User: What shape does this take?
Amino acid sequence: MTTIFGIPIQAFLGQLLLGLINGSFYAMLSLGLAVIFGMLRIINFAHGAQYMLGAFVGYLLLVNLGIGYWPALILVPLAVGLFGMMVERLGLSRLYGIDPLYGLLFTFGLAQAVEGIFRYYYGVSGNPYSVPPLLAGGTNLGFMFLPNYRGWVVVASLIVCLGTWLLIEKTRLGSYLRAATENPRLVQAFGVNVPLLLTLTYGLGSALAGLAGILAAPIYQVSPLMGSDIIIVVFAVVVVGGLGSILGAIVTGYMLGLAEGLTKVFYPEASNIVIFVIMAIVLLLRPAGLFGRDA
Assistant: This one.
């Protein structure tokens, strides 16, 4: 049997795939956080709840309305994005220009409220969401067996992350968004509706969390706790990549997911803390993060 550093190659590649899948969710969620912080300067503690909300909206669409996975891929981000826009207009927009701590406390309270509502109605046990028939089964690659759905998640995540980066960095809308964070009064003087841009930005970040939630539903149990279980890790990913860095969020998400997967192969006991160890080392050597700009 072929081995790598004494580890059977099937076990090695299996953990590498698991790390890549986790990295796909880390990248999408940290991307949404980076978009919101980079444009609004808000540390969005509700991001994990929006991820959980995406999974639950997909689950409820299937159970109550018979709307399957593929339509849900469009409907769920729209629903969570609209929820995020409502939150920004009714709550966060009133907190701009004052201590950022108030925005953090508001989103933290919102996350607790949303999670509490779902815990009240659905408990803490998970609800299953079936893999769509088109992506059921797996593909034998010769050196390993690749579940089709997990392969789809990696591809979909890459497409979404690349598309979001191109939108923000290479389009006129993205240039307006970046300019509005630097000098909103000047941008508004040119006839750009800055409040609407900020609302759309928060909606986009929320939609990314919702999309990650519906992608995760067939892999993990749909549970009210799924957001709080992952959000601390995602915050660590954002810090390592650099707060507000779009590229840093994407690259670091995949990188730390793979690091976590490899740690499970060579030193399983440390797999739950390796991301935080890396975060501590990066902050000691480069406080702004790998891709962040020094103040």
Q: What stands out?
A: The chain has a mean pLDDT of 88. The first strand starts at residue 3 and ends at 4. The chain has one domain: 3-122+149-285.
